Amino acid sequence: MVKIKLATEADTEVLALLGRITWDESHGHYIEDKNNLIKYLNENFSIAKTKENINNQKNFFYVMYVDKLPVGYAKLIVNAEQERIDSKNNCRLERIFILDDFIPLKIGHQLLTYVEERARELKLDTMWLTVYIKNIRAIKFYERNQYIHIGELNFSVSGKEYENIILSKKI
What we know:
about 35% strand, alpha+beta, single chain, 5 helices, globular
């Protein structure tokens, strides 16, 4: 049984661990210098950083459970500025990750749909996100869900730039 819930500060440790593992699973193989990867993971998925992110009122985290086991999560940032987005009532889907072992269950669409519904409840009208250009599986996933390519944006890991595309959808 799949359940999705809004995360609170009590979920900090679960989110930090899910974030670290899922980011490494989905992006780690793209980072050539593994010391840079470890540094990035330590900086961005620590307990302290995760707690700070959860307590930021512009951020909403949603944790997905399968049979009560946390298997993925999504992070929305409300009114995240992006020059290619005209809407002032937008949100950035900064993260949506599912543990590799659970991807074959095809539950990513369910998490994305849930997050889009929550964004509409917040009276937001546009969702945008970035995807690394070599992450073809993710790009195809978003395209199947009516996200369109609107630009490019570089993502930095320890000073090394990785080219990302920006995708957007009216919700």
